Structures are given as C-alpha cells and as structure tokens.
C-alpha cells in the first residue's frame, strides 16, 4: 500500500479508528444469570425501603416487577443504575461486574439502560437523529472528527427503526410523535446504545389499547437478545407479557412465579387484602 493510500485509509470518514471505539463490555453469563441482587438493604431516615432483597434475573428473560406503591421498585432500579447507594448487599452484572463499585455512567456503559415512565426524547430532533445520538460511540470526538455515520451505523439505526416500528416516522420531529411512539423511540434509544439489560418503568401508562398491544409485542420481541425488566401497575398488561413475575412488598420479594402462581399465592392474596391482583391494587 502506498503512503498516500495508507493516509487515505487512515482518515476515511466512514470509519472510526479502533482505538476510539468503545470496548464492548464482556459480561460473564456462564451461569445464565445476568443480574444478581443479594442481601440488599437501604434505609431512608430509618425507614427500610429495601429489606434483605434477593433477586436473580436470567440472561435474555423478560421479567415483570410488581408491587404496591412504596414497595421499593424504584429504589431497586436506582440502586442497579448507580443512582442510590445501598447500606449493604451486593449487585453484580454477570459474574464479574460489581455494580456497587461503579458510577452511573460506567453502569450505563456496561450495557444497563433505563427508561423512565415519562418519555425523555429530544423533541426538537428527528426520530433518526434521536437514535443517532444514542449510538454507542465516543461522543467527545464524533461530532468534530466524524461528521458522517458509517454504513454500519446507518444500518444499525434502520434495524432499530424496524424493531420499534418507526421507519416511516424517521424524518419526523420527535416532538410531533404520539405518546406511544415517543415511548417506543425511547426504547429504541436504549437499543441503539447497545443496552443489554433494559429497565423499563411503566411503559404503557397513558397509552391507548392499540399502543399497549404494540408495546407488548415490542417488549416480548426484545427478550432473548436483550434482558428486559418491566415495572408495571397494569396487571392486564403484565399478564399479556410476563413469563415470570416478581412481587415486591415492603422492600423484599414476597413471591415469584407465573402470573397464575402469583394470583394463587396466599401471601400475595393477603397483602392485596383479598383483592383480585388483576385489579388496580398493584
Ligand atoms: N430519597 C428518599 N428519601 C426518603 N424516602 C424515600 C426515598 N426514596 C424512596 N423513599 C421511600 O422508600 C419507599 C419505597 O419507595 P419506591 O419509590 O422505591 O417505591 P415504588 O415501589 O417504586 O413505589 P411506586 O409504585 O409508587 O413508584 C417509599 O416509602 C418511599 O417514600
């Protein structure tokens, strides 16, 4: 290769130098478990929000987390994502990443993405740009050195657009999307950022019946390639997507199993004061 060709190759605009590419975190799931939460405790002003909590999420599963208001669901998500520090216990991502030793940015970089109940898309940007901004690239150098996306990156965005069903809206401003479409875009942003574990908080709140159905299809289609933990109060929706449901109560796991097992569980029935867990009490 001539010196000139070598220089041209080095500065090709459609390629990112390998040393600038983020190292793909390797996650050891040889025991089939992606997330280990063990003996977890956290108190706020003496109140135990998380109380000796033990939870294991298998690699590739879709898990639903339910529980009454104040059961500790949000606090658990806050601990997993590095927002809240527990008093004791451990949280591991695969067998080698101790999440309690990492900050929020490092945890996100490892492949743990969180979607809050309220969509937080960039309203003034197109759907495509929202996904582009979420690609796992070195943001510090991308805008200045590499103005154009590589073919591979474009293909990745198209793949995500197909998955979330927004290919036709890709040039539309995110602010003009319906509530449901914004939620799907935000899930797409987690996919574009290569999140391996998706923590999804109340995805169908405020959605129409049709949007809810499409969200169920989307989340179930992600399981396998991704691991999805859904916190949801809508029991009909949980029934439509869940294989395994975990019930939290007063910061601990009260019950775990299929929806039928959960509904037949005497502890769950007692906590729900005899109410049908299909009702709004969760
Ligand atoms: N930063 C905090 N300071 C004080 N108390 C807190 C804090 N965060 C959470 N709590 C308390 O911890 C308990 C668990 O709250 P958490 O938000 O985790 O419950 P949740 O299951 O997510 O409820 P919801 O379904 O209403 O969102 C609640 O009693 C809450 O008031």
From TrEMBL:
Keywords: ATP-binding, Nucleotide-binding, Transport. Residues 35-275 form the ABC transporter domain. One of its GO terms (molecular function) is ATP binding. One of its GO terms (cellular component) is plasma membrane. It holds the Pfam family BCA_ABC_TP_C. PROSITE patterns: ABC_TRANSPORTER_2 (PS50893). It comes from the Bacteria. This is ABC transporter related protein. It comes from Reinekea blandensis MED297. The lineage of its organism: Bacteria, Pseudomonadati, Pseudomonadota, Gammaproteobacteria, Oceanospirillales.
